[in-house]
Amino acid sequence: MAELQLKSVEKMYGNGFKAVHGIDLDVKDGEFMVLVGPSGCAKSTTLRMIAGLETISGGEIRIGDRIINDLTPGKRGIAMVFQNYALYPHMKVRKNLSFGLKLKRKPKDEIEASTGEVSGILEIDELLDRLPKQLSGGQAQRVAVGRALIKSPEVFLFDEPLSNLDAKLRASMRVRITDLHKRLRDEGRPATVIYVTHDQVEAMTMGDRICVMKDGHIMQVADPVTLYEKPANAFVAGFIGMPEMNLADAELTMDGTPKLTLAGQTISAPADLSARLNAAPGPVTLGIRPQHMTIETDGAADAFSGVIHNIEFMGHEVNVHVTIGDAAFIAVVPTEKFDLKLQRGDRVGLRPTGVQMHIFDRASGENVSLAE
Amino acid sequence: MTAMPQISADTLANMEKQRRRARISSTFRYSLLIIVGLIMVYPLVWMFGASFKTNAEIFSSPSFWPKEPTVQGYIDGWKTSTPYTFAKFFMNSMMIIIPKMIGTAISCTLVAYGFARFDFPFKKIIFSTVIATLLLPNVVTRIPQYLLFRDIGWLDSFLPLWVPSALAGDAFFVFMLIQFLRAIPRDMEEAARVDGANTLQTLIYIVVPMLTPALISVCLFQFMWTMNDFLGPLIYLSSVENYPISLALKLSIDTTEAFAWNQILAMSCLALAPSLIVFFMAQKYFIEGISTGGVKG
Questions:
Q1: For chain B, which residues lie within 8 Å of any Cβ of chain A, measuring from their own Cβ?
Q2: Which NCBIfam families does its entry note (chain A) (predicted)?
Q3: Are A74 and B201 an interchain contact pair (Cβ–Cβ within 8 Å)?
Q4: Sorting pLDDT into bands at 50, 70 and 90, what band is B5?
Q5: Contact yes or no for A296/A359 (Cβ under 8 A)
Q6: Cβ–Cβ below 8 Å for B191 and A88
Q7: What tens digit of pLDDT does each residue of B225-242 get?
Q8: CB under 8 Å to A193, separation ≥6 — which residues?
C-alpha cells in the first residue's frame, strides 16, 4: 500500500509569505500523478514537503497509513530525482547507486545484486565505473533515476527531471520513464509517482492524472482527457493546450436562445454549447480552442468578423492570428481547408464550431458550461 | 566569383604602423615586468647563492654567485650551537604544524557547515562575531591568552599553539570555507538526506569530499603561516628542545658572538623547503574544482 494523501497541507515561510494554501490531494497506489503549473505555483515546494526537505506549516501528509509529517526524508519510504541530477560528484556511478543501500547497512551481495538489476533496467551497466562528470546529460539522468529505483521506495518523486535535457532526449526519456512505470506495474510492484513539471506536454503524455496548480492552490485534478475537454476554470483552460485556448471577455444574453456578444458583434451560441450552459446572463469569459474555429468569408452567419494580422504556415496546418475588436484570436486550420490567398489585413469571419467551447464566469473564472 | 575588395596602399601602411606600435608596446611592457620581477626575487636568489659562500665572502660582493662554493654553511648550521641538530627543530615544527592543521581542518569544517547550511537562533549575531574577530589584530589577544594558558599550566608545551586552532579559532578559514560552501548547490546534500543519511553522514560522505579543494587551501595556508610564525612559539615556548625552526634560526644569531651568516642563510634555505614542496604538491588542487561534475551534465 503506497497511497499518498495530502490533507490541508500548508506552507508558510518565516517572512509570513504563504506559499501553499491548504491543499488536498489523494494519489492512488501505483498512480502516476503529475503536478503542473507555471513557475512560482508552489508545485516544487509541495513535492519538497512530501520529500521532507521542507517543513510543513499545517495539515497532514500520509503514505499508506503512516503520517509522515515529522519523519526525516530517509525514513519516509520515498526516493527523489532532482532537476540537475544531484549525483555525488566524487563517487563513481556504482557508488552513487548503492549509497542509499549502504547507509541502510544492507549486505554486500544484496547491494551488488540490486545495482546489477537496476543498471540492467536502465541500460547503464557500461557506465558503472565512470564519474558523474564523465556522463552526458541523458546518462546522468538515467543514473539519477537508477539511484531512486534501487531503493524500491513506496513513492517516487520527480522534480522537473527532464528540463535540463535537449528536446530530443527529453522525448525519449519521457517514454523511458512511463515505460518503467508500466513495467513495475506489470511486475506486480506498482510505484506511486509524483512528477513535477512546468511542461504541459510532459504532463499530458505521462500522467495518469494531472494536478494543475496556481499560486499555491490546486486548480483541478483530473485525467488528461478531462482536463483538456472539461477544464474546471479559465486558468486550466488557458494552461493546457497548444496553442493556448483563446480567452476573451464577452457578454452572455438570453434572448430566447443564448447569444454571445464580442466586440459589438452578437452571434447565437452553437447548439453544442447551449446544451451544457449553466450560466446567468451577464459578463463572461469566452473560451475557444484554436482548433475549434473555422475561417469563413467576412459576414458569414454566426461568425465574428475580424482582421488577419498574422499567418503562420506550419506545413500540415496554418495558425491564423485574427483580431476581433481588442481581442486577439488564434485559429488553427488544416492547410487543405485554408485559402492560401488570404493575406495579412484581410477581413474574415471566425466561426466557433461549438465543440469544446467554454463559458467562464468572469469574476470567479469557474467554467459554467459543464452541465450534463 | 566576387572580386576581392581592393585595399588601398594607405590602409596597408596604416595597418603596418599599428602592428609595429603593438610590438613596441608589448616589448616595453614585458621588459618592465621582468625587471620588477627580478628586483623582487633577487633577495631570495641572493640568499640561496650566499648560503654557498664563505662567511667572509658574503660581505665582500653583492653578486649572488659564490666564487668558491662550499657547503660548510650547511654542515655547521645543521649541527647548531645547541645540543640538538637542526633535525630536532624541523621535527618540532612538524609537531606543531601537523596537529594544528588537522585540528583546523576538522573544526573549521564543522563550524562552516553549521553556518552555511543551518538556521539557528542568533545565527546572525554569532556569525558577525566570528567575522569581527577577523578584524581584530592578533596581538590584542596575546596577553589575555598568555595569562589564560599560564593559569592552566600549558606554558612551554605545544598545547597553546594547537588548541585555539582546533576550536576553529581561525575565523579566516571559517569564512573561507563558508564562502566555498555557499557556492556548492545543496541538491547533493538533499539527495543524501533522501538516501537516508543523517547530518553527520551527509557532512562526511558528501560535503567534505566536495569541499576538498577548499580544505587543501586551508591546510596549505595553515602550514605556511605556522611554519613562518615567530611570535607564537616565542611567547609560549621557553626551552630550546621545543623550539621550531623559526625560533631556532633566531637562536643561532643570539648565541654566537660573530654571526655565522652563511650558516643562518643555509638553514633559512632549508627552512623554506617544506613550504615550497607542500605548495607545489598541492598546487593543482587549488585550481581543480570538484563540484562541477555532479551539477551540470
A1: 185, 187-188, 190-198, 201, 205-206, 209-210, 212, 290-297
A2: PRK11650.1
A3: no
A4: low
A5: no
A6: yes
A7: 999 899 899 999 999 889
A8: A31, A32, A33, A155, A156, A157, A158, A181
Name which of A37, A80, A5, A346 is nearest A213 in CA terms.
A37
Chain B touched by A51 (CB under 8 Å): yes
pLDDT at B283: 76
Q: What pLDDT band is residue B286 in, cutting at 50, 70 and 90?
A: low
Q: Is the pLDDT of residue A184 over 60?
A: yes
Omega of the bond prior to A243 within 30 degrees of 0, cis?
A: yes
C-alpha cell recorded at residue B189: 546534500
Given the DSSP bridges, would you call strands A257-262 and A265-268 parallel, antiparallel or unpaired?
antiparallel
Bridging pattern class, strands A347-352 and A358-361: unpaired
Whether CATH 1.20.1050.40 fits A4-229: no
CATH superfamily of A246-361: Nucleic acid-binding proteins (2.40.50.140)
Cross-chain CB nearest to B187 (options A72, A84, A99): A84
Q: Which of residues 163-222 of A touch B (CB under 8 A)?
A: 164
Every domain of chain A with CATH number 3.40.50.300 lies at 4-229
Instruction: Specify whether the CB–CB gap between B175 and B251 falls below 8 A.
Output: no
Listed in sequence order, the residues at least 6 apart from A138 whose beta carbon sits closer than 8 Å to its beta carbon are A165, A169, A172, A173, B297
- Interface probe with A: pick from B188, B190, B195, B210, most Cβ of A within 10 Å: B195
Cross-strand bridge partners of residue A327 = A324
Check if the beta carbon of residue B297 is closer than 8 Å to that of residue B75. no
Q: How far apart are CA A61 and CA A59, in angstroms?
A: 7
- What is the model's pLDDT at position B264? 86
Of B194, B197, B206, the CB nearest to A79: B194
- Ranges of CATH 2.40.50.140 domains, chain A: 246-361
Q: Specify which residues A349 forms β-bridges with.
A: A296, A305
Which secondary structure element, helix H or strand E, spans residue A25, and what is its range?
strand A18-27
Cα dihedral A226→A230→A235→A241 (10° resolution): 60
Strands lying side by side in the sheet with A217-222: A78-81, A155-159, A192-197, A32-36, A209-214, A217-222
Residue A70, pLDDT score: 92
Domains of chain B: 18-74 (no CATH), 82-255 (1.10.3720.10)
Rounded percentage of chain B residues whose pLDDT exceeds 90: 43
Q: State residue A235's pLDDT score.
A: 95
Nine-digit cell at A100? 542509499
pLDDT of residue B258: 62
The proportion of chain A whose per-residue pLDDT surpasses 90, expressed as a percent, equals 72
| Chain B residue closest in CA terms to A150 | B195
Most confident of A206-215, A266-275, B44-53: A206-215
Query: With an 8 Å Cβ cutoff, are B290 and A89 in contact?
Result: yes
Would you call A127 an interface residue with chain B, using a CB distance cutoff of 8 Å? no
